[in-house]
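Incident log, support desk, overnight shift.

02:14 A customer reports that sequence design results differ from what the structure should imply. Their input is reproduced verbatim below. On-call engineer (initials T.W.) acknowledged and began investigating.
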């Protein structure tokens, strides 16, 4: 059921029996809200977000395809987030599930897109909400007669109580490309990542499970992923935040981006092949990771 009135439309609202909801714009197939059963918003949305195409919406979960950031020649984060998607009537080989808690969306390359990115593709995403969990299954099918490579990220904007009070577990000892230092490769030394300034890193060959521990909110957000080996951590901090028109000057305090991504080694698919990824976000109590 597509809602067509209001400035955040057309959009779909997903429900699940314990009361959590997810809102998805058809523009960019972008999740713009995920509320738990206590109606608490899990994702960050800038109150200066611009809800007018072709401007991307600052918050929720933008889909960065066929290019992450400016790791290539296309517009920042590629064009998929700036396109109107349609309902996917043929989600095969995934089973067709017509329910209030699932949405299947599709973006096909257009003749116009081919001018900037000369490859015919079908990009699909299945979005499923269940108790305490939000699952995204992105798929890219090559419907061209030549192979192509792409980079991709699910840019998860999480709402946090105070970014200087949260920590991230699961990325320790890994190598990362530091976007602030000419994308050179470094190794993470800390045994849990905390935040006291701008961070913009692509962690490489990450484990399937990464957690954001927000003690103040008694909330741990766990990101599990498959098919996307990298993870991105981004917070603009104060100086950059002021330079981003659709982000409040203080917003950096209550947001943290932790993305599932395929960046360092672009994904290559041949004609008729389909790549599939999976990202599962779940909310657990804060004792989850401190082993209590
Ligand atoms: O994290 C990668 C990055 O390109 C940052 O350098 C910053 O530009 C961020 O993404 C935001 O990009 P956006 O296009 O959403 O403003």
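02:41 Re-run completed on a clean worker. Output:
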């Amino acid at each position: 059921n597509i809602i067509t009135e209001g400035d955040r439309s057309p959009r779909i609202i997903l429900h699940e029996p314990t009361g959590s909801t997810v809102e998805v714009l058809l523009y960019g197939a972008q999740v713009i809200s995920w509320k738990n059963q206590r109606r608490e918003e899990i994702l960050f949305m800038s109150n200066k977000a611009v809800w007018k195409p072709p401007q991307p919406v600052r918050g929720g979960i933008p889909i960065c395809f066929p290019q992450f950031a400016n790791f290539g020649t296309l517009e920042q984060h590629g064009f998929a987030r700036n396109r109107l998607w349609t309902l996917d009537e043929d989600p095969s080989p995934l089973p067709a599930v017509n329910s209030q808690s699932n949405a299947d969306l599709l973006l096909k390359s257009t003749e116009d897109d081919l001018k900037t990115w000369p490859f015919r593709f079908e990009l699909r995403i299945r979005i499923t909400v269940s108790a305490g969990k939000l699952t995204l299954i992105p798929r890219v099918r090559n419907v061209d007669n030549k192979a192509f490579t792409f980079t991709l990220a699910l840019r998860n904007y999480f709402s946090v109580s105070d970014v200087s009070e949260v920590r991230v577990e699961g990325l320790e000892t890994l190598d990362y490309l530091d976007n602030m230092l000419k994308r050179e490769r470094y190794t993470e030394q800390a045994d849990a990542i905390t935040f006291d300034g701008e961070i913009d890193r692509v962690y490489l060959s990450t484990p399937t499970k990464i957690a954001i521990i927000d003690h103040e909110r008694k909330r741990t957000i766990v990101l599990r992923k498959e098919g996307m080996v990298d993870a991105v951590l981004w917070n603009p901090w104060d100086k950059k935040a002021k330079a981003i028109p659709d982000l409040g000057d203080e917003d950096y305090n209550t947001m943290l981006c932790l993305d599932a991504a395929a960046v360092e080694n672009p994904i290559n698919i041949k004609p008729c092949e389909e790549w599939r990824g999976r990202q599962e976000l779940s909310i657990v109590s804060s004792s989850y990771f401190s082993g209590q």
